[in-house]
Amino acid sequence: MISGVLPALPLIMIRPFLPESPEWQKKKDSGKLQRPSIAALFSPELRRTTILTTLGFAASYGIAFGAIQQLPQILGAPKGGHKEVLAAGTQAQEKLKTTLAAAGKPAPTERQLKVAAANASDAVIANITKMQETGGLIGRCLLAVVVLVFMSRRLQFSLFIFPALIFIPLYFNWVGGSLNTESLDLVKWGIFLAGLLTVAQFSFWGNYIPLVFPVHLRGTGESFAANIGGRIIGTAAAWITITLSESMPPNPAKIAMVGAAVAGVYALVGAVLAWMLPEPKEGEH
Predict the structure, then answer these.
(1) 252 part of a folded domain
(2) How many domains are contained in the chain?
């Protein structure tokens, strides 16, 4: 949350002083700037663009919410979570018992032990989440480099969606089958790469969508794709993963493997759409 808030703070101060887009200002001054409407997004000339960008945005968000955002509960599940995360919780409980005994205080209650274990597990998982966030930040920077090198927008998106289609399902399948065997170091580097490949896609959409809609529909087109595609169709992946992996008690290995399948389906949709995306037309926007 903080990594998202910090860049926004200076923008709050700067935005009121930024000049309008020259093209927008030119159309406004000449009286040619049209009013935006959602219906215009589905006009014959824009319908295909609207549908493709909405589904593409959904595909990118589905990868994140179907699998990546499930990693903390996979690793930290009280029963069946990752061995190193559970070990950290056990060590915290033993430390609490020793500390209270040395101070001549009563033995900790069951609630105190659960809180101690949960806090220790959360601290370990927080370090893994930092790796994901770092990967996402580098993904954004890498996208900026890719934009400078490759002019084709389809190729830019393909450079991230195709590796994500292969790596992320394989990674979460591996996580689901290795909770009791593998080191957390491998998990960290895996989620670093998963975050890089996924967050770069978010940056792609933010750069691409305004270029394929007319000036007066830039905000409307991006808002529709982000909110309907990303935040409704895309985030539904979390509900799908949790629903299909539901068990009592929760089975983290099953969550990981279902998440791999759900993310894989969303990524496949994105990969299919990659070469269908319209290229921006020079001089029209």
Answers:
(1) yes
(2) 1
Name every residue whose Cβ is closer than 8 Å to that of residue 240 and which is 6 or more positions away in sequence.
66, 262
Whole-structure pTM value:
0.87
- Helices 110-149 and 153-177 cross at an angle (nearest 10°) of 150
Is residue 114 one of the residues assigned to a domain? Answer: no
Contacts 24+ apart (CB under 8 A), 102-111: none
HSE of 57 in the Cβ direction (CA atoms, 13 Å)? 25
Residue 170 lies in a domain: yes
Structure tokens at 255: 């969550």
The separation between CA 128 and the C-alpha centre of its own chain, rounded to angstroms, equals 15
Classify 106 as helix, strand or coil.
coil
Q: pLDDT digits over 197-214, tens only?
A: 999 999 999 999 999 998
Residue 227 within any structural domain of the chain: yes
Q: Which residues of 232-263 are buried (b: 16+ CB within 10 A; e: fewer)?
A: ebbbbbbebbbeebeeeebbbbbbbbbbbbbb
Q: Could you list the residue range(s) of the whole structural domain that residue 248 is in?
A: 52-82+137-274
Alpha carbon distance 190, 171 (integer Å): 7
